[in-house]
Amino acid sequence: MIYKGIIHKYSELLDLPAYSITVSLNEGNTPLIPIPRLANELGGDFKLFIKYEGLNPTGSFKDRGMTAAISEAVGRNVKSVICASTGNTAASAAAYSARAGLKAFVLMPAGKVAAGKITGAIAHQAEVIQIDGSFDDALELVVKISDKHPVSLVNSINPYRIEGQQTGAFEICEQVGSAPDICCLPVGNAGNITSYWKGFRRFNEVKHTGLPQMLGVQAAGSAPLVLGEPVKNPETVATAIRIGNPARGEEALQAAHESNGRIISCTDKEILEMQSRLAQEGVWVEPASAAGVAGLKKEILLGNIDPKDKTIVAICTGHGMKDPDIIVNQAELKEPIPVGLDKLEEVIFSN
Ligand code: F0G
């Protein structure tokens, strides 16, 4: 069977209005990659997998929810959509809007969006509006303007974003053969953890695949759900999750509570170390995407999680190519060498 995206594959499990007109880029169907060396380092005797969501059409997990939100909007004859974004939602909204012939307006915090994301939004000809404020400020603005004017909101407040996003959980259950014991993932605006928990419960109702514990991970400088209150000036190198007042924060806490899981935080240092560690496995993810695995490592080392005999799936939400600067700025690229075998031998074999 030719793969045609998540709405086509999971139409029976998704609560999308009948009037929806599918707009797809064949999103989803992402690989579940075993990471045995890291599992060994963390004590062994358990299975660790990465759900590599960076392999979606626009390089992040957002495409699952966006295909659903744009399909619903097109079915309603909407002409324009709007979102606030730390970058990935913007790039995804821009691509799906382009495909559907809609105008997309994307608001982003100026100077705080990784290069690959803003470039994606520009490439797909969205109207990019940078604001002198945070993601939280941008979200407040887009909610207000979409209440007042005929422009549809495609942030994860939009319920169809959550519907589509659930399919990540469905796929994991199919790939593993059941729900994993633990599912860890980064948390920003908290749409993703809300969706995964909903998706695992939905799949369990229909296919009896069981339920995982949810481990949500925030960046320490942007950890409102760990602190129990909004963070006014969130800061983190993981700009994707630089969010101080998550729209679905309550649902994230509920997912953690109901699944007997937790929401924790990791420092930027822990996040970047894990990004580098995963790259050494051949899996390059953007910083925020490494937060889930960084949190898992922390919980195992603290003795809060005993991984023995468990199957653990970490959602890596975005591709490393989204944020090239974070790598380049940490690296020292040597000067070019003249063309010549002697020089090349010297560089390779002199030490
Ligand atoms: N990882 C990446 C790469 C993200 O881009 C985001 C959110 C998250 C994790 C967190 O997911 O918000 O559902 O809890 N990015 C949004 C955006 C906010 O605008 O692209 P969440």
Instruction: Order the strands across the largest sheet as they lie in space.
Output: 1-2-10-7-8-9
Report the strand count: 10
Number of DSSP helical runs:
15
User: Which ions and ligands are bound to the chains?
Assistant: ligand F0G
Shape: globular
- The CATH class of the largest domain: Alpha Beta
Structural class: alpha/beta
- How much helical structure, as a percent, in the residues? 40-55%
Please provide the ordered H/E string of secondary-structure elements. Answer: HEHEHEHEHEHEHHEHEHHEHHEHH
Q: Which features would summarize this protein structure in a list?
A:
Rossmann fold; 10 strands; 351 residues; six-stranded mixed β-sheet; 2 domains; 15 helices; single chain; binds ligand F0G
Description:
- The chain is of the alpha/beta class.
- The chain folds into 2 domains: 6-59 and 161-328, Rossmann fold (3-Layer(aba) Sandwich); 62-157, Rossmann fold (3-Layer(aba) Sandwich).
- Helix content is 43%, strand content 15%.
- It contains 15 helices and 10 strands.
- Strands 1-2-10-7-8-9 form a 6-stranded mixed beta sheet, sandwiched between helices. It has a 4-stranded parallel beta sheet with strand order 5-4-3-6.
- The protein starts with 5 loop residues before the first helix and ends with a helix.
- The mean pLDDT is 97.
- Bound molecules: ligand F0G.
- Ligand F0G binds at residues 60, 62, 85-89, 156, 186-192, 240-241, 286, 288-289, 317-318.
